[in-house]
Amino acid sequence: MPQPRILVPAVAGLVFLGLALLIVSGRSFSLDTTLIMLFRDAANPAVPLGPAWFHEAVRDMTALGSFVGLFFMALTATLALWLCGYRHLAIGLVVSLAAAFLASTGLKIAIARERPDIVEHAALTFTASFPSGHAFLSAVTLLTIAGFVGIASRKADIARFCMVMAVVMVGLIGLSRIYLGVHWPSDVLGGWSLGIVWSSVANAWLGRKMAASDPA
């Protein structure tokens, strides 16, 4: 029976590939519209559900998945690994995240899906819709950082704790994009799926290979 660490990224890869092919072929999903509207006031779809303070909290959460937010998380993790003597791991983290950023940009340009137009956007957008860059890059960044910290710590409980926290943050960042009306749910699902595949490969191959080159 396949282990979860193999089965999960394999399924995620199939989900991303299926979504990408359907979107490129011009397919739309009625569930996308239904899910976006769940976060909106039925009497006034321009307004997301919840009080004003909650709107601000969601915008704060989405900012964690922005380029600036992820850059500082990645910078902190990279410097911490470097200063702790895991210099190859630090380099591997930078390589993985830089390549993911290029891949995200290339996929958005190639697929060129339009942003949702059924509700007013509660945040500014500058790129195409699929895959969600916030969902993809936050998954790559946070899951890879968690994996690399787990590898460096050599302690299973620390690795599990870091991974759980990363999963929670990635989930909330992705949901915030739907709540703000700037992404279709399928954009976020596609970003999550590709991020799981990318970080799984980075952790299982690049992370362990780089760690083997660092002093014990």
From TrEMBL:
Residues 91-203 form the Phosphatidic acid phosphatase type 2/haloperoxidase domain. SMART domains: acidPPc (SM00014). It holds the Pfam family PAP2. The keyword Transmembrane helix applies. The chain crosses the membrane at residues 63-83, 90-112, 132-151, 158-182, 188-206. Keywords: Membrane, Transmembrane, Transmembrane helix. InterPro entries: PAP2/HPO, PAP2/HPO_sf. PANTHER family: AT30094P, SPHINGOSINE-1-PHOSPHATE PHOSPHOHYDROLASE. This is Undecaprenyl-diphosphatase. It comes from Bosea robiniae.
